[in-house]
Amino acid sequence: MRLFALTALTMVAFASNSILNRWGLLDGETGPAAFQALRVVAGALCLGALLYFRGNMPRLLTRRRVVGTGSLMAYMLGFSFAYVALDAGVGALILFGGVQVTMFAGALVAGNRPPVLRWVGAAVAFGGLVWLLWPGAIGAPPFGASLMMGVAAVAWGVYSLAGRGATDPMAETGANFICSIPFALLAWIVVQDGMSASGAVLAIICGALTSGLGYALWYSVLPKLDAAVAALTQLTVPVIAVVGGVLVLGEVASGRLILASAVVLGGVALGVLGGQRRSGSKAS
């Protein structure tokens, strides 16, 4: 029960990133560059403090940091700018589906041969995203904002693939956040958008709690979860974001979004379970 509760809390934290970012930009006074900058700084301070008290501060100037910091910043910027126009649930679905498709493509580039069901699952998930985002269709989200979230999804997929070999994922994430601070602040200086008091509070919560502590909590429970279970639990993130967007932000869950969510998440689940079954049969 403790593991279940911690895992559920982590998924709520991940979904809250979408809700908080969208909420922070709704007042019209807080801009996306300002929000992401404060989110990065708050996340870096939180993770840095955790690593300091844990007694294993990571090295900051390494080759791994180029990919890690670059992809983290691309994710942060794309994510924040997308939520100028996207609802929380729509953004979370595009992000989640895009990450899964990116990681599938990365596996192919690396020379892996996924089982047939994983191919089918990836195709279904990608098809669901295409249908949701098809330009000009009734109920389709804004193309520009969707494109920005697509950039964020690819960036987070690359970030995840690059971090697979990390011996201490939390330390790597903390180091990447710390190294991202000057770039996040530079983006804010270039764009020169504003920030309200409420937007600042939401950005700090998003950075320190739902990002910093959320990632730390995820890395603490991840070793205790089966790989398929860990992947499947993340299917709940877009659903939580949709529900949270409706309850907290007054968003409307359209029929198109509900159907697209079912297609995308169903495709991901098929791919995960299909791949796990194939692995299990080989092991036996």
From TrEMBL:
Q: Where in the cell is it found?
A: Membrane
- What superkingdom does the record give? Bacteria
What is a single cellular component term in the Gene Ontology annotation? Answer: membrane
Keywords assigned? Membrane, Transmembrane, Transmembrane helix
Nucleus recorded as keyword: no
Transmembrane intervals: 34-53, 65-84, 90-109, 116-134, 140-162, 174-191, 197-218, 225-249, 255-275
Q: Give start and end of each EamA domain.
A: 147-270
Membrane topology of the entry: Multi-pass membrane protein
**What SUPFAM superfamilies does its record include?**
Multidrug resistance efflux transporter EmrE (SSF103481)
In terms of Pfam families, this protein maps to:
EamA (PF00892)
Q: What is this protein called?
A: EamA-like transporter family protein
Native organism: Boseongicola aestuarii
Q: What is the lineage of its organism?
A: Bacteria, Pseudomonadati, Pseudomonadota, Alphaproteobacteria, Rhodobacterales
